[in-house]
Amino acid sequence: MPVIEVRGLHKRYGEKVAVRDVSFAVERGEIFGILGPNGAGKTTTVECLEGLRSPDGGTLSVLGLDPHRDRDELRQRVGIQLQESQLPDKLRVGEALDLYASFYRTPANPEKLLTTLGLADKRDTAYKKLSGGQKQRLSIALALIGSPEIAVLDELTTGLDPQSRRDTWDLIETVRDQGVTILLVTHFMEEAERLCDRLAVIDGGRVVAIDTPAGLVAGVNDEQRIRFRPSRPIDRRELEALPEVRTVEEHGGQLVVTGRGNVLHAVTSLLARAQVIAGDLRVDQASLDDAFVALTGRKLD
Ligand SMILES: Nc1ncnc2c1ncn2[C@@H]1O[C@H](COP(=O)(O)OP(=O)(O)OP(=O)(O)O)[C@@H](O)[C@H]1O
């Protein structure tokens, strides 16, 4: 049974339709992403799931409960990442965790959480003295302090430098490995590709696709382009005869082979049999960026 189920969600702000007919289901233990540009309706969808907004239409179920009616119960079982400015400057890291731990029936061990999140030496540091990455990690710690079954992370790595972003991704995988289901809202393609088991692409308040990152890419175009310099001339017809290969071109000593499926394996096997070494080998594949453009007609970032 899915831990989150959204069916035909509809939400308006006055005349403005923010979410129209959004449906998806999240299975226990997965990292499920909601990916879309600014204004796509991601936050509205998540706020309905958190019980913060009432839908105008559709049904929502979180852990088998109704987000609005059962908000108190769900608050114990679903961890929500706070936005940065929601903590007082002078509150120390340890105090924040102890305070939040007191809200929950079965809090996690704050010391252990601080260690997992690399904040053990920041226990006595005031919130305002933390770096952007540390504030972000604290907000994740606060989302996890109640030992939630589901964590909702909205714009997880916005404003972080590339290294802190990668560290945060590693951390989220560790959290998932401990059995927490993660609903991740993002407008970073790389983040979605790296972290999500499956994702819903949302645009203009609608779900335009739901799949694994690889499935989204394959659905758009699975053609690959292989480029290399053969160590000695090779008969192009041999490459063209491979069923996976579509075209073979030669540009100044470089061969460019396009094809589908297992074309890379087919080409490299043939070269190995012919004892030809492929120098400067490069493979270009469609990316999630290409999939997004194909699905929505525009680029994300
Ligand atoms: N309180 C509100 N009143 C009126 N319109 C709103 C309100 N909140 C959001 N909207 C509008 O609804 C649409 C969806 O907004 P939402 O915040 O859900 O999108 P989003 O995908 O989360 O975008 P972002 O990445 O910018 O947060 C947008 O056009 C937005 O301007």
From TrEMBL:
Keywords on record: Antibiotic resistance, ATP-binding, Nucleotide-binding, Transport
Membrane topology summary: Peripheral membrane protein
Any one GO molecular function term: ATP binding
Cell compartments where the protein resides: Cell membrane
Gene3D superfamilies listed in its UniProt record: P-loop containing nucleotide triphosphate hydrolases
Pfam families: ABC_tran
Chain ranges of the ABC transporter domain: 4-229
Protein name in UniProt: ABC transporter ATP-binding protein
